[in-house]
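WARN no homologs supplied; continuing
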Amino acid sequence: MDFWTIIFLTLAVVIFLKLRSVLGQRTGRERPPYDPYSARDAVRGATNDNVVTLPGRAAETAQKPIEASEPAERWKGIAEAGSTIAAGLDAIVRGDSTFDAQHFVAGSRAAYEMIVMAYAEGDRRTLKNLLSREVYEGFEAAIRERENRGETVETRFVAIDKSDITAAELRGRTAQVTLRFVSQLISVTRDKAGNVIEGNPEKVTEVTDVWTFARDISSRDPNWKLVATEAGQ
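OK structure emitted
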């Protein structure tokens, strides 16, 4: 074995050890790569395999109950003290002490944008991860009809102006939270020839949606899913 071969082998071993120390080893017991409701930032990191890089809670934080606080402060910026929404959030926290409304709202914004974009792109894989079976079937049917007509949708988010919780409750072991989203986006539908048949590629439109997310708090699955949608006023 000559001198240069030894040098290259040594470098290869060093590089391998460095990568191993940085990336770690997969053991088959890692957390799912996709948990939008532990997000802190809007989704911007979609990769080609539809895994979205969203910062999650550290393991120790995920297990730590939310500290008790005065009713007037507990949902500050989320719901008024004594309101029906606050009572619903209190019920959810009693069932799941790790529930954090601020983080939930941040994650819901990420999920909202992701779902809207996935629907426009016909990305069934992403939608299946985020929607309940009934909602997914409705979205998939609309996508299929659009594809059969040879139409395509182009959507671009400009901003999400509002994402307010409008209802919250615990039904048995199922937590449900409804949010009203007001967003600014550009969206057009084109026919198979590329002609615009709906929307305007140069016009920003305000869109209001009211979406309900749900999660079985007795499940180890941390993901929330979209269970109902309606157009808002």
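The chain is about 35% helix and 25% strand.
OK
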